[in-house]
C-alpha cells in the first residue's frame, strides 16, 4: 500500500460483477423459467463482455485477490466471474460449448442430491423436475477445466436449519463431490443466497475457502470470501441492465453491511421454521405450481 493508501484502496473497491446463472435453455420448466436465460441472450452477454474489454477470470483468482494484496494488485482493472447454480443439464449441452468457443471458464455449483446417476432419467430429488447433470457429465466438465463447487445436498435455507442439520448439507456435499471427482473442491454457494454468521463459520470449518451469496451487488477485491456478492441473471434481465453491470454500474459494491430488511427477513423465516410452517422458496419437488426460488 502506498503511504497515502489511496491507490490500492481504490483498486480493491473496483466493482467485479460475479454473475449468477441457473438454466440456459429455450424451454425451461415453469418453476425455473423466471431465472432462465435463453442461449442467444447468453451468447450476446458473453460477447458484450468481450466488446467492453471485461476480462472473465476464474472465481479462484477473485478469491485470491480478496485474501492477498499482491493478488489484488494483479487482478485486471475490469473483470467479471461467471457462476452457475444447481447443476442443470444445459450447462453441459449449451453453456460449456459457448464458453469453450470463447476461451472462457466458469464455476458450477452442484446441488448433489439433484445430480443423476449415469444412465438414469430424472427421478425424485430435492428440486422440482428439470433436466439435471449426471456424474459422468460432471466429471467431463471437471476434466475440461470448469470449476466444480458445492451448493448443498438438498438446497435448503441453511440459515433456518438447526446446527445438527448443517453437517450433511455443508460437509456432506463436499465429501460427495470429492468422492466423485477424486480431488479437493473449495468453492461453495449458499442456496437462495441465505447464510448468516453461524452458517458462514460452519462453511469455513468444513474446508470451503470461498462461498457465494447473492446480494444483487458487485463483488470486489475487498469483498468477504465467505459472502461473495453476486448479480443474478433473470429471464427479464435486458441488454441495457447487463451493459450497466458490465460497466460496473447500477448496483452497490461489496463489502456492504446487511440491512435491517435482510435481518428481519431472516428472523421471519427462522420463526416460520420453528413453527413448522417454513417459507417455501421452491415449489414441491414434483410437478406442481409455485413461486421460483432465488439462488
Automatic annotation (TrEMBL):
CDD domains documented for this protein: CE4_NodB_like_5s_6s
Residue ranges constituting the NodB homology domain according to the UniProt record: 78-295
Keyword terms, alphabetized: Signal
UniProt key word Signal: yes
Domain of life of the native organism: Bacteria
InterPro entries, alphabetized: Glyco_hydro/deAcase_b/a-brl (IPR011330), NODB_dom (IPR002509), Polysacch_Deacetylase (IPR051398)
SUPFAM superfamilies listed in its UniProt record: Glycoside hydrolase/deacetylase (SSF88713)
Subcellular location per the Swiss-Prot or TrEMBL entry: Secreted
Chief localization: secreted
Protein's name according to its UniProt entry: Polysaccharide deacetylase family protein
Amino acid at each position: 500500500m502506498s503511504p497515502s493508501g489511496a491507490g490500492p484502496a481504490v483498486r480493491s473497491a473496483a466493482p467485479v460483477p460475479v454473475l449468477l446463472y441457473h438454466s440456459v435453455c429455450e424451454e425451461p420448466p415453469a418453476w425455473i423459467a423466471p431465472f432462465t436465460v435463453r442461449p442467444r441472450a447468453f451468447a450476446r452477454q458473453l460477447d458484450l463482455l468481450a466488446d467492453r474489454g471485461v476480462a472473465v477470470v476464474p472465481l479462484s483468482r477473485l478469491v485470491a485477490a480478496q485474501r492477498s494484496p499482491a493478488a489484488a494488485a494483479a487482478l485486471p482493472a475490469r473483470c467479471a466471474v461467471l457462476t452457475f447454480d444447481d447443476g442443470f443439464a444445459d450447462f453441459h449441452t449449451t453453456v460449456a460449448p459457448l464458453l469453450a468457443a470463447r476461451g472462457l471458464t466458469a464455476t458450477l455449483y452442484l446441488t448433489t442430491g439433484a445430480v443423476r446417476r449415469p444412465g438414469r432419467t430424472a427421478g425424485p430429488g430435492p428440486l422440482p423436475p428439470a433436466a439435471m447433470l449426471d456424474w459422468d457429465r460432471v466429471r467431463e466438465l471437471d476434466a475440461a477445466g470448469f470449476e466444480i463447487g458445492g451448493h448443498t445436498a438438498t438446497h435448503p435455507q441453511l440459515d433456518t436449519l438447526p446446527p445438527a442439520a448443517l453437517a450433511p448439507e455443508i460437509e456432506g456435499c463436499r465429501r460427495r463431490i470429492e468422492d466423485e471427482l477424486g480431488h479437493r473442491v473449495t468453492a461453495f454457494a449458499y442456496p437462495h443466497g441465505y447464510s448468516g454468521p453461524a452458517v458462514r463459520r460452519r462453511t469455513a470449518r468444513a474446508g470451503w475457502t470461498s462461498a457465494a451469496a447473492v446480494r444483487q451487488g458487485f463483488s470486489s477485491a475487498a469483498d468477504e470470501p465467505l459472502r461473495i456478492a453476486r448479480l443474478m441473471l433473470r429471464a427479464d434481465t435486458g441488454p441495457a441492465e447487463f451493459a450497466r453491470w458490465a460497466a460496473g454500474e447500477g448496483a452497490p459494491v461489496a463489502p456492504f453491511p446487511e440491512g435491517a430488511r435482510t435481518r428481519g427477513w431472516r428472523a421471519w423465516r427462522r420463526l416460520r421454521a420453528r413453527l413448522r410452517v417454513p417459507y417455501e422458496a421452491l415449489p414441491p419437488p414434483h410437478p406442481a405450481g409455485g413461486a421460483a426460488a432465488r439462488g
